[in-house]
Every structure is written in C-alpha cells, then in structure tokens.
Amino acid sequence: MAFTLALRNLVHDKIRLAVTLTGVIFAVVLISVQIGIFIGFTRTISGVIDNSGADIWIASKGLKNFDIALPMDERKVYRTLSVPDVEKAAKFIVQFANWKKPRGGQESIQIVGFETRSGLGGPWNVIQGSLGALDIEDTVFVDELYLDRLGLEGVGETAEINDRRARIAGMTRGIRSFTTSPFVFASFKNALQYSTVAEDQTIYILVKAREGADLEDLKGRLAVAVGDVDVFTTAEFSALTQHYWMFSTGAGVALLLAAGLGLVVGMVVVAQTLYATTMDHLPEFATLKAMGAPNSYIYRIITLQAALSAVVGYSAGMALSLAAARASRHGDALVLIPFEFAAAMFAVTLAMCLGASFISINKVTRIDPLVVFKGR
To answer: Which GO terms describe its cellular component (predicted)?
Structure first.
C-alpha cells in the first residue's frame, strides 16, 4: 500500500517528476564522469610504471615524478647487480623529445628506452609488430591513439626524433600519456641516440627481485650499496607520481570538487521537488494521520518516493556515464568506471535522495491531523 501511494504521488505531477529525475541523472553523470576521469588519469599517470614488470625503481636523488628525472652514472647498474636478491637490473630512459612528422609539422613526445632483453619497462598491449624488431637500428613503437597527432598512417612509415630517423616497427593500443606528449618506445640503444642522455648514463635502473625476497629490506640495502639515489618499490613510485600530478598540480582537486558539486546540486534538486510534492499532498497525509496512521507509515511513503527517484535516476544516469566511458576509449582522456565504483555510486545516489527526503519528513512530523476538518 505504501509503495502504491509513493508511486502515485510521484507520477501525479509528471513535470515535477521529470525535474526530480533530471536532477538525479545530472548528479549521477557529473559525479561518475568526474571520478571516472580521476581514475582514468591516475591509471594513465602511472601506466608505464605499473606495467614495467619491475619490483624496484632506482633514480637520481630528489626525484618528484616519473616524467622528469635527471640522468645518473650507468656504473650504478653494476653496483645494483652486486646486491644479493637482485635477479636482474636494467637501464631505462624517459625524456621529452621533438617529433618531426613525415608530411611536415612537429609534436612533443616522450621517448621511452628500455633494454629489450631484460623484459623490463617495455610496451604492452602490442597489436602490430614484435618487440624483437626494436633491436633494429632506428625503430620505434607508437600507440594507435596518437597516429593522427604524429602525422602517421601506420607501421612502416618514417619520421624524425630530434633530427634522427625513426621507423615505425610496431604499434600498441591504449598506452596514453598524462602529459599529452605521446610515449614512443625504443630500445635503450636507439633511445640514447634520440635523447640528450650520454652513453655512460641512464635515467632509471629497473630491478627485478629474486622470488620471495623482502622488497622493503632489498630497497634499504640497494640505497646503501648504490649510494646517492632514491629507491622505490613499484607501488611507492606509482603512488608518488600519481600524487604529484593529481594533487601538486591541482588537477585532481578540481575533478573531485566538480564531483562534490554534482552531489550538492543533485541533493538540492531532489530535496526541493520532494518537498514540493509533500506540500501538495499535505491534506492527504493529514487525513492518514487523522485515520490513525502512524508517523512511521507516512515516513515510509516519503522515503519510498526518494528511493524510487534514486533507482530510476541512477539507472539512466549510469547508462549515460557508461556510454561516455565507452566513447572515451578512443580519446586522449580516459574515463574509467569500474564495477566497484558503479556499485558504490548507487549507494551514494540512494543516500543523496534519502538525505534529501529528511526535509519533507520533518514537515510531515509537525502536521496537525485537525487540518483535515478545518480545511487548508
């Protein structure tokens, strides 16, 4: 009975129902997309680190993020290899460079150089070509997302990196760059030619630990043995880089503020329309109280109205958000909406609508049943 009354109250004024649902949908889409962009950005920021296959990263002292680091002497690689529990250590370069397009024009890129035999730090999601091709002189891999920006049509074309020839030997899918400068993968030897790093230097040392090794203990021993370096586990380095770009630059704060704004706007719209609906049906609620209906019964009607608005609004809003996330797969900015977040978003929507119904409940609590006999 309470469900039927709640449903009738909602659909009685279809325009008001449309406004309520629009408010909920707006809030769901705004929050989901903003947080989806936040999640997508964090995955993008640390994508190369998380997919490196390394357990520990060694960098020059004072490092703040993955994208900007100073070179160090390559002899530190040999000191790294001398530490017990180190299975392998490999040199790794990442540096900004100029890309000259085949048909004219330039673009900023990040050249990523890795030791192909180590299996550490290379590209993933390879859809064309084999990693072995990168051992050939002047060969690079690019991502299909950036073909237009790099002025390319496909594998086999040639361009220039810092005025040196680069031939496209393979392609990846979905490797984005947060800095908007596309990653271009090359062997360490080729990357040296494209960068300003000296032959006896490296930017990072990637370490693979022996199975069962205590990473925290190994990290401490590496810091002592190598000397004058920063040493991170992969998880620590990933978190450091994510925190730098998302919070030190304010990008993440802006996204979270926008999501919070969506929550407030949605709650205000739902509260306003539920309150107006309650006021319209005040005589009916007074009649129910005069007939002996307890307050809990009327509260149930109002909360059911809020819950129904939440379910319908969430369904439509999440469908739109997932469509936006799907469309973002082919764009620079990735929107990620994992199942766990989508489920949590339903709880947020329900809480938002139920919270907004408290104003209406407070009004009904103070209603005098005699209003039925006095007339409004």
So the answer is: plasma membrane
